Amino acid sequence: MAETHSLQDLQQPGVSSKVFVQRDYSSGTICKFQTKFPSDLESRLDKQQFEETIQTLNNLYAEAEKLGGKSYLEGCLACLTAYTIFLCMETHYEKVLKKITRYIKDQNEKIYAPRGLLLTDPIERGLRVVEITIFEDRSVGSGR
Amino acid sequence: MPGFSSGGVGGGVGGPASAPPRSFRPSRYVPVSAAALFLVGSTSLFFCFTCPWLSDFFSAVIPIYIAVIFLFTLANFCMATFMDPGVFPRAEEDEDKEDDFRAPLYKTVEIKGIQVRMKWCSTCRFYRPPRCSHCSVCDNCVEDFDHHCPWVNNCIGRRNYRYFFLFLISLTTHIIDVFGFGLVYVLHHRQQLDTPHAAVTMAVMCVAGLFFVPVAGLTGFHMVLVARGRTTNEQVTGKFRGGVNPFTNGCMRNISHVLCSSQAPRYVGRLRSPKSVEIQPPFLIPALTEAQLEAKVLDNGIQNDRHSARSKSSLDQIESQSADAEPPPPPKPEMRYPGLPRADTEESSLLTEAPPTPSMYKYRPAYNSPGRNHTALTHPNKMIRVESLDSPSPSIVHSSRQPSYRSEPSSLDGTTVVGGGVGARRGVGERGEGPGGPGGTTGGVLGGMSGYSLTGRSYTSYPSSLVLSMGGSHSSSMRSAHAAHNPLATLQSEGTTDTSYKSLANQTPRNGSLSYDSLLTPSESPEFESAAHELSPHKPHAPFPSVNRTGQLEMVSPSSPLQGYMSPFLSAQLAQQREGQLLQGSATFSSPHRAYLRAVSPPPSSAGLPEAQYLLQHNQDSSSRGPRNPSSSSPGARSLEPPVSPPPRGLSLGKSQTYIGETGPQHKPRPAGGGSVLGGAGAGGGQQAPQFTSRPVLANHTTSKPGGGVKKVTGVGGTTYEISV
């Protein structure tokens, strides 16, 4: 017996709209995103959840940009090796960025995808916006 | 080399979001090749001819030490040359969908209490983050843009500033070492100066000595910048002349930020992680709270409608003419410079029927024919009006007048958008950018509102001041593409234009690169001069062909503001003052543009002054000597305050107020009058008044004010930068 699937089920849901969470520049040019809950997400997501996600992202970026002993040592080492160290070693910022990518993936899997949303890593947009894609909710019309 | 940029010629026109065609310009590689050649060549000669004797006579440590310094210099040179300065990738199409047509040219954000303007970049399709600027040479927006350095043929931005700075320091050290040890050699071989070794050593010493002055000057300049937490762009455009820099964290922190922060990541050329998340309905939906339910019931969807209504109304009006990719035609000549003396009837009609700020298009005369903007002119005005209904006009001055100038309401991205002004600002801004001389920015009068004024830091990395020159049509809040890249030449703020819309702005003329030159002579003296003449119609300045072309001095700004970057408020006030004066005289004075025009152009700098010196002088002089012109900006500003504060007295006044509000730094509290604005500005930015005095763009002495040519600006230590205008 052939298994039939409706085309709808096989397709990825269409993109209904995108919400862009802009940067919060109130403290300067450090990387920080606005925690204001976009109105478009009201029907899809809890405010709490959203704020928590953004806040965690902000904290991670703050950690990346922190001027601490680690970044200082990294700079010194780079100077001493005429910057050839960059060929082999990953910088602190990059390490944190990887952490952020993992966090976003995790959030997407656990929280956002079940709600028909998708967070895009802001680094892909030059750390200017956090893009949240809202997918169409076709569950009502699936016919199954 | 990362320094590639699409040639200004033809490079930017019609360029889509993807990389525009890049013309290969060998001339761009001349300075960097020369620099590399001198560095490597001279040092090699030194090692071959002088070092053997030095190691014999003194010790082997000397050549080793010199070698280490040389390698360090070379490494930093290579990093500065080849490293991505922090280029922002172009925004994807869906990102600015909501912002299209009616989106204001500027968005304001508050940074540590200071209003900073973010300009819409029509090439990159996003609002430039603070401190970001679009380099016309590289055709990219660069984060924390410092300047485009011809000697490394690359932009200096966030990622490679450290290497550039270390390169300067190490190069200065290296030059001193080479010169010093060469001198020691020569002094010990006084009797054998005819030997090839001695001759070569002396030649190397000459080269070293020759380069020492400019390099050391530049090093000193950058040391000051690092300590103050400013970029070259900000310094030369006089953004923080009043002394309030929201980006500084104190001297020690600034230095450690430059030297010790972790290497910032690259934005372009990153591997995109594959989307591994599957999204399938059914989706979870959060439970609504009771309050939410109630709100929904009562809402009637009005809120949502607002969003769409706003755009649609204007969109409808604008659609017909702005939907196409072509730049809107420039407004009729009479309408183009609302502020200029003109027949009364026209002026009054303009004033009565149109929104306060005339629409200004930033466009380059070359691209547009004069007749085309008529419709555009009126339409945007209408649109503005519609829009304004939504938002309270935050603008400082024009509360009464220009509700329309309100920029997109805060719903736009949630950023703080300071209303009215923004709308206007776009137009103004566009003007600013446009002109650059040849550009003829439409609506040139941005003048006064320097982006950099006062507290508000409206930045326009692009020479909004250039707009001044250009008559262009006033694009009502259209972000004309033309302006987009104009070189810094005039850092006039964009503030002046009234609503400029992104759509208009999206035809980008790209020209010129931000070099010291443009930075230094933002508004080109001619602008100032014209401004100085205040409204006298005869002022076309040679340097700004656009002005000539229009035949009218669009930017008539009060003399005082001419210097440097004037706070928009000040200029506005001055404008108002002037308007008052003019009203008695010519009826045509309308100034919103004027205010802006005036404001920003820095007075022509005396040629030849090294910027460092200039800076030193100026910082002292500016406060003391005030504006060059009789109406000193500071006192003028102050005196203007009273007149400004009361509601606009006349149409023209109102207009100028409007402009002022728009262009200037968008202070959150917007008092209705220029005075208050000024006060606000003062409060926010420390003392702004003196800002516009002075500032010359120091370096710009050699500027050739070309109509569309290349401006050369002499930077610190005699470095010359070319800005295509």
From TrEMBL, chain A:
Domain Golgin subfamily A member 7/ERF4: 19-131
Transmembrane segments: none
Membrane association type: Lipid-anchor
Pfam families cross-referenced by the UniProt entry: Erf4
Chief location: Golgi
A biological process from GO: protein targeting to membrane
GO CC list: Golgi membrane; Golgi stack; palmitoyltransferase complex
InterPro entries cross-referenced by the UniProt entry: Golgin_A_7/ERF4, Ras_palmitoyltransferase
Recorded superkingdom: Eukaryota
Keyword Oxidoreductase: no
Keywords recorded for this protein, A-Z: Golgi apparatus, Lipoprotein, Membrane, Palmitate
Keyword Glycosyltransferase: no
Localization of this protein: Golgi apparatus membrane
Its biological purpose: May be involved in protein transport from Golgi to cell surface. The ZDHHC9-GOLGA7 complex is a palmitoyltransferase specific for HRAS and NRAS.
UniProt family annotation: Belongs to the ERF4 family.
Name of the featured protein: Golgin subfamily A member 7
Organism listed in the record: Pleuronectes platessa
The organism's taxonomic lineage, starting at the top: Eukaryota, Metazoa, Chordata, Craniata, Vertebrata
